[in-house]
From TrEMBL:
Chain ranges of the YqzN/YkzM domain: 8-57
Full protein name: YqzN/YkzM domain-containing protein
Organism of provenance: Alkalihalobacillus trypoxylicola
């Protein structure tokens, strides 16, 4: 299981499967990863960015 957390996935695939993988709408992935450079990221990194995005105060 630990190995899956370090594998990198394409952002568009994570967005496409966001409901199944993270229980969120694709739009949340868009917001959480808005400033991310590159096109691949680990699942654990995405989970961290989602958590930060959802707990951030709106301006």
């Amino acid at each position: 299981m630990e190995q899956h957390l370090t594998n990198e996935f394409y952002l568009n695939e994570l967005r496409e499967h966001s409901r199944r993988l993270f229980g969120i709408k694709p739009e949340v992935i868009d917001g959480a990863l808005f400033n991310i450079k590159g096109n691949q990221i680990t699942k654990s990194q995405v989970e961290r960015y989602i958590r930060l995005f959802l707990t951030r105060e709106a301006n």
